[in-house]
Write a structure and sequence with these properties.
four-stranded antiparallel sheet; globular; 2 domains; alpha/beta; Alpha-Beta Plaits; 323 residues; Rossmann fold; six-stranded mixed sheet
């Protein structure tokens, strides 16, 4: 046991290697019970590998971890009894009907006979599929399949719910509706551990771990990450030729980073009040019309881009020293 019953998940120096490749590099974190904990990072960062170790699907190469007080190295089967798991593939059998999928998972989770009907009715209502019990799962739209998969994953009322990229490939409205369900579950005391690469979804989490190249590079609430990991100022710039402006500004000495956000530019500078004149002047010299330029609070995407740029610079310096 990890000796800390208030923690749903505790991980110390967890590591997973595939040959010479380090997919997860000595990560450590804790998730209190009842929290929505987000694992945020680009594809290939190590998110799914971590979740597979925590759910007992993959053995760690090093380090230790506990889920619900159970050791991930030695108590994998016991862990499966207290968790729900939903992968990005939704884990549904497309040739079965909605009802048959729920019956199948009810059997897998060994739900007592006297509870099965009530739990199935709850899952159908939660997923908005009451009346469509006989529909083939493959005929459902992506958002409905997603909600059905969530219902199947929590039929047995797990303490801890693991969601691995659960909204990948789903339309924005379905994603928003899905997160309404997640928040409802969290309010009922379920711990939710979710991996995502969508920055807007990360804002819904109580706390976040930002993972890149198998390492956690920042950990905290969304507000803490914005305050503590973004020392530079962010300018939001509206111009008539944003793509051309981006190509121009990345070469300006006062500009640390620049990125497109829809039709707007986010430009990172050291000091907004001192650097705005130089940015405006560079654009105007190129004949670009500046409609608006103002300092804004950084978004999580600003923070993540900044942290990744810093990691890449540090890695480049390390390689130079080695050579």
């Amino acid at each position: 046991m990890n000796g800390q019953p208030d923690l749903a998940v505790r991980v110390e120096n967890l590591e997973r290697r595939f040959g010479d490749f380090v997919a997860v590099n000595k990560v450590s974190f804790e998730v209190p019970r009842g929290e929505i904990f987000g694992f945020l990072g680009p594809n290939g960062a190590g998110k799914s590998t971590t979740i597979r170790m925590l759910t007992g699907l993959l053995a760690p190469s090093g380090g230790t971890g506990w889920v619900g007080g159970r050791d991930i190295r030695t108590q994998g089967e016991a862990i499966k009894e207290i968790i729900g798991y939903m992968s990005q593939k939704f884990s549904l059998y497309e040739d079965l009907t909605v009802e048959q999928n729920l019956d199948f998972y009810g059997g897998i989770y060994r739900i007592p006979r006297d509870k099965k009907a009530a739990r199935k009715a709850w899952a159908l209502q939660m997923a908005g599929l009451t009346g469509r019990e006989t529909s083939l799962t493959r005929e459902l739209a992506g958002g409905w399949r997603q909600r059905l998969a969530l219902g199947a994953a929590i039929l047995h009322e797990p303490q801890i719910l693991f969601l691995d990229e659960p909204t990948s490939g789903v339309d924005p409205i379905s994603r928003r509706n899905f997160w309404d369900l997640i928040r409802t579950l969290a309010h009922q005391g379920v711990t939710v551990f979710v991996t995502t690469h969508y920055m807007d979804e990360a804002e819904y989490c109580d706390r976040l771990a930002l993972i890149y190249r198998g390492r956690i590079i920042a950990l905290g609430t969304p507000d803490e990450l914005k305050r503590e990991h973004m020392p530079e100022d962010v300018l939001e710039v509206a111009v008539d030729r944003p793509v051309e402006s981006l190509e121009l500004l990345v070469k300006e000495p006062v500009v640390r980073e620049a990125a497109l956000f829809g039709k707007l530019l986010h430009v990172v500078v050291t000091d907004a009040s001192a650097d705005i004149p130089a940015v405006r002047s560079a654009l105007q010299r190129a004949g670009i019309r500046v409609d608006r330029m103002e300092k804004i609070l950084p978004s999580l995407e600003d923070v993540f881009v900044s942290l990744i740029e810093a990691e890449d610079r540090a890695e480049a310096r390390r390689k130079l020293r080695e050579n």
